[in-house]
Specification:
Helix content is about 60%, strand content about 0%. The radius of gyration is 28 Å and the shape is rod-shaped. The chain is mostly helical. It has a domain of about 30 residues. It starts with a helix and ends with a helix. The chain has 2 helices and no strands.
Amino acid sequence: MAQSRRNFLKKAAVVGTVAAVGAVASTASTTNSYSSNGVVVGKSPKKEITYKKTKAWDDFYRSAL
């Protein structure tokens, strides 16, 4: 009884592992690995603009002084 239960659990674990690996592999192959979600990616240096001179910013800096 215990031996057959152990064999069943071993087989179930193997089948589950194979199914999980297959699911992950199929998901990884269907998604775009270069999706940047709007973020600039790459190795070259990027120009980051953190401030743009506008009337709203001028008003804010004047009131902050």
